[in-house]
């Protein structure tokens, strides 16, 4: 039998599809274009929420006593590095690559870990003190670990708004790879905490900056990596 021949005994009208129902046609006629999600919408929303509390702290808190004695170029460069770590990590956690629908977990973890590593190297190799103005832990009657723990907790506290709002967003955007995206989100919040400490913490030794400021960022990244998978299970 040729392909265009009908089986014997089967009338042609049996093969014709039924016409669409009136309800279906009415539903199709009521369809309207749906606005797609903006690639930068989630980033903008989380960034605004994350910046609110740290911005208020910097505006209301006394700035570090050695700020005017430090090289202005170094102050600007260090602030720019902390701010870039925040923006890059948050973007990797929330903004899909062009042409993609969801953020890429591998990109998120790379960005978060690279940001922590870059600030670690900067803190070890490029920390600057202003003699007579900058303080050491012993000047405030604290040990190195005690002062670092104090600042690490503060950085973690500053990271909480970013983590809280970011977790709400990523619960819907991260069906898989949650730990890696959470790491990037936490690193972004921790970098924001480090940026605040850059302007208000008077202790400028490399050990304190690495353990307290960068260490707080690393703790926030670890918290994000744990919190996002847990949030998605609820």
Note down, in words, how this protein is organized:
It is a single chain. This protein has 234 residues and is an all-alpha fold. It has one domain. Helix content is 66%, strand content 0%. The chain is elongated and about 100 Å long. The N and C termini lie far apart (60 Å). The model has no long low-confidence stretch (mean pLDDT 88).
Task: Write a brief caption for the model.
This protein is mainly α and 234 residues long. The protein contains 7 helices and no strands. Helix 2 (41-60) runs parallel beside helix 6 (178-200) and helix 3 (72-94) packs antiparallel against helix 6.
Question: Helical proportion?
Answer: 55-70%
Give the overall pLDDT as a whole number. Answer: 88
Report the β-strand fraction as a percent range: under 5%
Our measurement of the CA-to-CA distance between the termini, rounded to an integer number of angstroms, reads 60 Å
Q: How would you sum up the global shape?
A: elongated
Please trace the helix and strand order, writing H or E for each element.
HHHHHHH
Protein structure class: mainly alpha
Number of DSSP strand runs: 0
Uncertain stretches: none
Radius of gyration: 27 Å
Largest sheet: none
Instruction: Kindly give the count of domains.
Output: 1
Number of helices: 7
Helices and strands in order, then pairings?
Elements: H1 22-29, H2 41-60, H3 72-94, H4 105-126, H5 144-173, H6 178-200, H7 206-233
Helix pairs in contact: 2-3, 2-5, 2-6, 3-4, 3-6, 4-6, 4-7, 5-6, 5-7, 6-7
Descriptors for this entry?
234 residues; mainly alpha; 7 helices; 66% helix
């Amino acid at each position: 039998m040729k392909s265009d021949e009908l089986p014997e005994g089967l009338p042609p009208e049996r093969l014709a599809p039924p016409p669409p129902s009136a309800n279906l046609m009415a539903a199709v006629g009521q369809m309207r274009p749906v606005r797609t999600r903006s690639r930068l919408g989630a980033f903008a929303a989380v960034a605004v929420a994350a910046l609110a509390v740290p911005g208020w702290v910097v505006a209301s808190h006394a700035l570090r006593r050695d700020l005017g004695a430090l090289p202005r170029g170094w102050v600007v460069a260090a602030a720019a590095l902390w701010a870039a770590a925040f923006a890059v990590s948050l973007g990797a956690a929330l903004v899909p690559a062009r042409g993609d629908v969801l953020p890429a977990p591998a990109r998120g973890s790379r960005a978060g870990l690279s940001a922590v590593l870059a600030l670690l190297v900067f803190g070890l190799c490029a920390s600057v003190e202003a003699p007579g103005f900058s303080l050491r832990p012993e000047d405030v009657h604290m040990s190195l670990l005690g002062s670092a723990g104090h600042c690490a907790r503060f950085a973690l506290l500053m990271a909480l708004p970013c983590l809280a709002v970011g977790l709400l967003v990523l619960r819907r955007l991260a069906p898989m790879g949650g730990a890696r995206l959470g790491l990037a989100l936490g690193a972004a919040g921790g970098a924001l905490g480090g940026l605040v400490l850059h302007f208000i913490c008077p202790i400028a030794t490399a050990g304190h900056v690495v353990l307290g400021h960068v260490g707080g960022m690393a703790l926030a990244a670890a918290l994000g990596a744990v919190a996002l998978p847990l949030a998605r299970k609820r």
